[in-house]
Amino acid sequence: MASGLPPPSGPSVTDGLNATTVMETDPRPVGIFAPDGTLAYRNQAFLDAVFPTRSHGQLRPIPAFAAMVDRVRRLAADMDAGPHSETTTFRVPARRTFKIDYVRLDDATAPEALGGGIIVYMTDVSAEIDALREAEADRLRLSDLMRSSADWVWEISALGEIRSISESFSEIVGYPVQSLKGCRFDEFAQWIEPEVGDITESREFRERLPFRGFEFNVPDTIGGFRRQRITGVPLFDQETGQFLGFRGTGTDVTLDTSSERMTAQSQIDLEATLEQLKLRNADLLRTLEEAQSANLAKSSFLANMSHELRTPLNAVIGYAEALESGVLRPDSDKYRQIASDIAHAGHHLLHLINDVLDMAKIDNNQIDITVEPAPVGDILRDAYSFIMLAASRKRIDTRQVLVANGPWVRVDRVRAVQIFVNLLNNAVKFTPEGGQIGVRVGLAASDMAEIVVWDSGPGIPQNRREDIFSPFIRVKDDAHTQSGGGAGLGLTISRHLARLMGGAIEVRERDAGGSEFVVTLPIAEPGQTTDANVTSLPPRGPTAG
Ligand code: ADP
C-alpha cells in the first residue's frame, strides 16, 4: 500500500511523505487516514493489531476500528482541533490496551488525497495498565482486610507527625481520623509505656529500632479512656537510606487491661478478706477462750463462795447458840473468845459481800468517785487499822507499813483506803507467820506518787502476774491455797478504782523475795480544794477480812 506514495523527505512526522517512512520504521502500529476516514497507509504492526482475523479471505478489523475511523472523521472535519490522544482497550486477539494518538497531517506537505488527513499512533500500554490494575487490586484487598480487622495501621514521619492512620481508629476514638493527620500522638494521647511525652522521645524511635508493646491512652467520647497497644518498624528511603519515620499496627487493649486490672484487684480484695477472716477467727477463738475461762472462773467462784459464805455463817450460828444457851458466863475468857470469833466471821462475810456488790457496780459502770487532796500517810494509817489485828495474829512484822511524811494525792479518800486495805490484807494473808510486810513511798513522775506495798510472802509466778487482776482468778499453788479464802475480786476492784482516780496498779517481784504491788496516784498540792463529782451511790467504808 505504501508503494503509491512519494519517497520520504525530511524528518517531520506531520509531513505526509515522511510519515510513510517513519511509519515503516516505527515498531508501534501506525496508520494514516484520509479526512473521509479511509485508511490510506498502515504498517505491519497496525495490520496485526487492528486486523487480526480474516473472514472469507477478507481482513476483519477489531470492533474498536469503527470508533477510530469515526474519531478520525470528526477530527478532520474540525479544523481547529489540536492533536488528540485517547486510551482504548482492544480485546482481540489478546486483551491488549493501546494509547492512541491522533495527529493532523499538514495540508501543505501532505499528498493531495491526504490533505487534512490524520496519522494514528498506537502505543501498547497493556503492561502499565496491568500493573496499575494489580496495584489497585492490592490496595483494595489491603483496605478490605484493614476494614474487617479490629486492629489499625499507622504511619508517622521522621518528626512524629501522623501521615496515615486507618479508619478503624475512628471507631475506637469516636471521631474522624482525617483530623489526626499531621498531628503528633502526644497531641491526643497519653503515653503509658514507655513513660514518655511523645513516641519521638522513646529510645526505639531515636535509635530507629523496631518495637512492640508500646501503649497509650486516648480519651473516648464518653469521658473515658481507651488503651492502645502498638508495634512499629522504622522506614528508610530504599535508595538514599534516609530515615522516613515509623509504620506499624495498633490494637485496642482497653478490655484486656481493665479485665487484667479487675482480676488483680479482686485477687487483692480476696486476700484482704481472707486476712480479715483469719483475724476475726482468731478474735472469735480468743473470745471463746476468754468466755470459757471466765465461765470456769465463775463456776469455781460460786463453788468457792458457797464454802466461803457457809463456813463463817455456820460459825456465827454455832457460837451464837452457845452463847444463847447460857452455859458460859459473860465475863469468862471463853465467852469473850466466842464473841470475838463471831465478829471476825461477820467482818469476813461483809467483806465478801461488799466485793461482790462492788464488782456488780463495776460491771454496770456505776462506780463514781469524788476526788480530794489527801495525805498518803493518813490513807495508809486508816488502812492499817483494818489489818492490824490479822497481822498481829500471824505475828507479822508491820513496822514499815506506816510512813511519817508522804505526799498529798488527789483521790476519793474512802476508795483509796479500800485499795490499800485490799493490798495490805493480801500481804498479810499470803505471807507466812512471822513474815514481814511494809510500804515504800516515792515519786513515779513529777506529778505521780508511787506507793509500793511489799511483803516477804511466796510472790506471784511471772505468768500469773497479769491474770490476778482479772475477776475470780486466784493462784493455785500450795503457798497460796494454804493462805485462806477469798473471792478473787479484790485486785480487780482495786485496779479499777486506781484507774478511776487517774492512777494504776502493777505487780512485780520483790528483790528480797515476795511481791511488790505498785500503786501510782496523781499528786495534789497540800490543802487543795475538793473537785467533787456527784456520787450516784453512797460511799462505804472499807472492811478487812
Ligand atoms: P483474793 O485475795 O480474794 O483471792 P485478790 O484479787 O485480792 O483476791 O487476789 C487474787 C489472787 O492474787 C490471790 O488469790 C492470790 O493468788 C494472788 N495474790 C494477791 N496478792 C498476793 C500477795 N501479796 N502475795 C501472793 N499472792 C497474792
Can you walk me through this structure?
This protein is α+β, with helices and mostly antiparallel strands and 545 residues long. The chain is built from 12 helices and 20 strands. It has helices at 16-25, 44-50, 64-77, 126-148, 168-173, 203-206, 254-324, 333-363, 376-393, 413-430, 478-481, 490-500; strands at 30-33, 39-42, 53-55, 58-60, 84-90, 96-104, 118-124, 152-157, 162-165, 190-193, 211-219, 225-236, 243-252, 372-375, 397-400, 408-411, 436-445, 448-455, 504-509, 515-522. The strands form 5 sheets. It has a 6-stranded antiparallel beta sheet. It has a 5-stranded antiparallel beta sheet with strand order 2-1-7-6-5, sandwiched between helices. The longest helix has 71 residues, at 254-324. 26% of the residues are buried. Adenosine-5'-diphosphate is lined by residues 422, 426-427, 430, 455, 457-458, 460, 468, 474-475, 480, 486-492, 515.
